[in-house]
Amino acid sequence: MIELKGVTRRFGEAVAVDNIDLTIETGEVCVLVGSSGCGKSTTLRMINRLLPRTSGQILVDGEDINKADPEALRLNMGYAIQSTGLFPHWTVARNIGVVPTLLKWPAQKRDERVTELLALLGLDPETDARKYPHQLSGGQAQRVGVARALAGDPNILLMDEPFGALDAITRESLQQEMLRIQRQLNKTTVFVTHDIDEALKLASRIAVMDQGRIIQHDTPEAILRRPASAFVENLIGKGDRGLKLLALRTVSGLMERHPEPRHPEPVTDSLNESDSLRIALSLMLWNNTEKLPVLDASGAEVGIVNREQLLKVGA
Amino acid sequence: MRLWLTPVIWIASLCALTALLPAMAPLFSWVEGGTDNLIYTRDSFYTLLQSHIWLVLASATMGTLVAVSAGIFVTRPAGRDFMPLVSQIASIGQTVPPVAVLALAVPAMGFGEKPTLFALVLYGLLPILRNTLAGLGGINPAVLDSAKGMGMSSVQVLFKVELPLAGRVILAGIRTSVTINIATAAIGSTIGARTLGDPVIAGLVNGNTAYVLQGAILIGFLALATDSLFEALERAWARVFSARAHKA
């Protein structure tokens, strides 16, 4: 658990972070979102003491971080940034192994961990491990950056716009990976982004920041349904709020489950269990249909989503 | 190891020349016909070469230690205040000619090898310092940020990240410094240091072109051998730390 109590950071006269209180529960993904210069990165960098705070208290599991040794503190906090910051003179494997090396893990344990992480992030443990950062594409480099942050098996993950510089398709796929990894590992995560869609997708709770203050701290659904101010309303975009709400839920929660899985009819379009309701609606509009079958990972039809129910969710 | 072939060839030819020059009297009679003193004999060329190399090596070692430490110091948080001062000294120092440094060193330290060494260290500092600052300053700040964020201590960041990345640029600075000092050391002969400049000075004073040539040829070969040695070193460094290590 991370607690920020009355934390302020000034740069000279300017106040970058203004007396904020924020509690991030163990295992949750807290996304700090806001326009550039709102203090979200400053907040993140105070948590691993890359920046000292001017006043206030930051506690990790009840302990003031200023009491800990800064290096020991950071070794237990994975850190990934937008420009990756990979060490250009080291191979991918050595980059990922940096924290295990600093933690003095035995070489074999470290190498196994590196291989495991390469596989987890969809990189080839054979060929990619020996590459240098300049030989990677932007998406691959960012995967290595995330793998490196996870390598020491830290309790906390700090991510500063890790996908901000990627193209839309790569970003989308990395967001999916993040969700999958987070379901597996359950790390307490602080994630900074300026992209509200990314925030809605990844967050268990979102903290909207503006001019160094936290305007609203709530679940994605609550932020969409009850924005605290005009600023938040603008940020989430009034117009497609309904669709964004649908995007938060998957069809598996809403579908009418068949008692037994069936063979799907081959002609119609179908959904996967993990698809969002937004995709379900879009497909219904496209096919001009009331109902769509839902398939599980093995391709068997496990249920049906119908339009009437779906429309009630958005209300 | 084709990397090291060129410097080995240069060093071998330098040694061969040093040994064979005394036997080349007939060749020098062609440029300096009017005298029997065709070969410089006050010291053996081998002694002069050795003493010349020693001067350059000693000054380069001291210069590197001082300049790299100074460069590291002013890029740390504690020394950051001295950064403008030091980088100014580094660029102004380059505009003072080496002869002037030698001339100023004599009244302070007398004649001989000591003032020469002093002048060489002083003059050799500047290119190394400048390149140390450029090398350390040229590292992508995101790399340093993430190194620190990973939990490296400042000493680990310095030795595992900064110096390996800046190394090639620093090495290039040492190369410049050593090459300049090989030439400057020869001028040391005018203030009483024993170097390969001796035959040149003696030749100029006595109007003996053969002496001048012998000194100049050896200095030239020494400079070329050293330069190719550094070329190989820089390549080896780049090979160890990936092809484009200095970019980020």
TrEMBL record, chain A:
Residues 262-315 form the CBS domain. Keywords: ATP-binding, CBS domain, Nucleotide-binding, Transport. The keyword Electron transport does not apply. InterPro entries: AAA+_ATPase, ABC_transporter-like_ATP-bd, ABC_transporter-like_CS, CBS_dom. Residues 2-236 form the ABC transporter domain. The keyword Disulfide bond does not apply. One of its GO terms (molecular function) is ATP binding. Pfam families: ABC_tran (PF00005). Belongs to the ABC transporter superfamily. This is ABC transporter ATP-binding protein. It comes from Marinobacter salexigens.
Automatic annotation (TrEMBL), chain B:
It is a multi-pass membrane protein. Residues 49-230 form the ABC transmembrane type-1 domain. InterPro entries: ABC_transp_perm/SBD (IPR051204), MetI-like (IPR000515). The chain crosses the membrane at residues 53-74, 86-111, 117-144, 165-191, 211-230. Keywords: Membrane, Transmembrane, Transmembrane helix, Transport. It is found in: Cell membrane; Membrane. It comes from the Bacteria. Belongs to the binding-protein-dependent transport system permease family. This is ABC transporter permease.
